[in-house]
Specification:
mainly alpha, 7 helices, Transglycosylase domain-containing protein, single chain, 0% strand
C-alpha cells in the first residue's frame, strides 16, 4: 500500500484531528499523553493498522462532509441575503415610483382646478363689466377676482376708509376720486379711459399704485394704519 498522508484526507477540524491522532497513538503503542494532533500530522495510512484505517478514512470523510456542509450553508445564506437586498431595493423603487405618480397626478389635478377657477373668474369678470352701475357687492367681487386672495382684506380695509366702496365717491375739498381716492382722479386714466364709471379700472389702478409704492396692498395698509393715509 502506498504511503498516503492522513492530512490528504483534509482532517481540518480539531475534532477530526484528535480522532485520527488517538487512533494512531493507540496503534503505535504510544502513551495517551502524547500530543494526538502532532502524531497525526506525521502519520500515514501505512503507519496505522489495517483495522484502524477505515476509522481514519471515515473521520476524514466526515470532516470533509462537514466542511462542505458549512460552505453550502454560507453560500445559501449569502444568496438569501442578496435576494433579500434585491427584493428590498425593488420594493423601495416601486414605492418611489408610486409616490412620484401620485404626486404628478395631484399636481395635474391642482393645475386643472386652477385653470378652471381662472376660466370661471374670467367669465365672472366679463359678466360684471360694461354695466351702467355697480353695487358694493359687485364691486367687491371684481376686486376679489383681480388680486391674490391674501391681499384682498388689506385692499378692502383701505377702500372702506377711503370711499366706503363707492366708486363715484368725490372729496369735495381735495378732489380725490373713486374707490381708492386717487388725487387727482384723472391719474386713473393710465388704467383706462373709463376710470370715472368703471370700478374695475379704479381697482386696477389702485392695485398697481399699492404694489409699486408699498410692495402690496397689505404693505399699503400697514402704512395707512400708522399714518391714516397712503
Amino acid at each position: 500500500m502506498s504511503r498516503i498522508s492522513v492530512r490528504g484526507f483534509a482532517v481540518a477540524s480539531a475534532t477530526a484531528v484528535t480522532t485520527v491522532g488517538a487512533v494512531v497513538g493507540v496503534a503505535a503503542g504510544q502513551p495517551a499523553s502524547v500530543n494526538a494532533e502532532a502524531t497525526a500530522a506525521d502519520a500515514t495510512i501505512a503507519d496505522i493498522p489495517a483495522g484502524a484505517q477505515a476509522q481514519v478514512q471515515t473521520a476524514s470523510l466526515t470532516q470533509q462532509a462537514d466542511d462542505a456542509s458549512t460552505q453550502a450553508d454560507a453560500a445559501a445564506l449569502k444568496s438569501a441575503q442578496e435576494a433579500a437586498r434585491k427584493a428590498a431595493a425593488e420594493t423601495a423603487q416601486s414605492k418611489k415610483d408610486a409616490a412620484d405618480e401620485a404626486a404628478k397626478k395631484a399636481a395635474d389635478e391642482r393645475k386643472e382646478k386652477a385653470l378652471a377657477a381662472s376660466r370661471s373668474a374670467s367669465r365672472d369678470v366679463g359678466d360684471l363689466l360694461g354695466k351702467s352701475s355697480y353695487t358694493v357687492a359687485e364691486t367687491q367681487a371684481l376686486a376679489r377676482q383681480m388680486m391674490a386672495g391674501d391681499q384682498f382684506q388689506c385692499f378692502s380695509n383701505i377702500v372702506d376708509h377711503e370711499s366706503g366702496w363707492n366708486y363715484r365717491a368725490t372729496n369735495a375739498s381735495s378732489g380725490a376720486y373713486g374707490l381708492v381716492q386717487a388725487l387727482p382722479g384723472s391719474k386713473m386714466s393710465s388704467a383706462g379711459s373709463d376710470w370715472q364709471t368703471n370700478p374695475a379700472t379704479q381697482i386696477k389702478w389702485g392695485l398697481n399704485y399699492m404694489n409699486d409704492r408699498y410692495g402690496s396692498p397689505c404693505g399699503a395698509w400697514s402704512f395707512w394704519q400708522a399714518n391714516s393715509w397712503y
